Amino acid sequence: MANADQPTTLRIRALASDAAKVMLSKQALSDLMAWGLKKEDGAMNQTPCPLCGKNSLTEKHGEYRFEPPEAIPGGAIVVTDATWYECGACHEQVVPPALESAIERERYRRLGLLTPEEIKAVRERTGLS
Known about the structure:
This protein is of the alpha+beta class. It has one domain. The chain contains three helices and seven strands; from the N terminus they run ββαβββββαα. The strands form two sheets. A five-stranded mixed β-sheet has the order 1-2-7-6-5. The protein is elongated and about 50 Å long. The termini are far apart.
């Protein structure tokens, strides 16, 4: 369903058993923005969804709720004051890198793991990097 102008660097991850979210690299989000995802008078222009191709992608603001797999304790991950994009036709969500990073940081915290940034800081303090 993709056309030649559509960004090709999308990567899809199954993040929950009942829905797939579209996670975009910084370059893919930049490509999508250049491809036509622009705000005009508070509304999105007719931008096709990268998955279904329908012209119903809209920008969303507010509290973003993510239901992680059972292996991640603590229930829903909630990111306040988030921005993401959602298709009105297929209800897939395009998650920008900043929101993906916030979800990943919380996932690391819940699992008792250091984030990549924390690992880098430890390695620099100890002279291992």
